[in-house]
Amino acid sequence: xxxxxxxxxxxxxxxxxxxxxxxxxxxxxxxxxxxxxxxxxxxxxxxxxxxxxxxxxxxxxxxxxxxxxxxxxxxxxxxxxxxxxxxxxxxxxxxxxxxxxxxxxxx
Amino acid sequence: xxxxxxxxxxxxxxxxxxxxxxxxxxxxxxxxxxxxxxxxxxxxxxxxxxxxxxxxxxxxxxxxxxxxxxxxxxxxxxxxxxxxxxxxxxxxxxxxxxxxxxxxxxxxxxxxxxxx
Lengths: 107, 116
Fold this sequence. Notes:
Chain A is mainly beta. Chain A has strands at 4-7, 10-13, 19-25, 33-38, 45-49, 53-54, 62-67, 70-75, 84-90, 97-98, 102-106. In chain A, a hairpin with a 2-residue loop joins strand 7 (62-67) and strand 8. Chain A is globular and about 35 Å long. Chain B is mostly beta strands. In chain B, a hairpin with a 4-residue loop joins strand 7 (68-73) and strand 8. The mean pLDDT of chain B is 96.
């Protein structure tokens, strides 16, 4: 099983700030990495797949990068609706696995 | 707008059974692979099972293999998860989602609570 590790666990930020979230895979997954956003009381929402491809309807302020074992999700200018928990997930090997999440909270 | 609506979640005893359903609308259901993903407070998000668009191929996680079965009825635009021999650790919100590999559209989830 591929283990996904996210850092930091919590990030306290203010609207307008640039945010960088990290995700590490326990073995190489090429670019088979997805990112999800989960707001309080809602289901997860797909943001990015293939490490850098935005899902339909996702704003351009969200961008993904990385390959192999190291990946990053960047929010260029945090909006109030962006607070929540972000999860990475590998879609390389069929026992698909998620990270434990990074909570983005208001400073 | 594509909608996925789960149902069937409720309280159950260890060793019991439940059948979850997911009704899809505004989607050409028969062209999509579908999956179940669950979320428990301690274990986080966990992929549970996936089934191909035609329903002929399916995959389940090791944690539920032999106990859970995924299936679909394309004539009814519905996805199912038959859950047998339930365990305490199966307590979670169960989401259905389009896709396999990564999960594009999610329902709002249905809560399964296993307790004695």
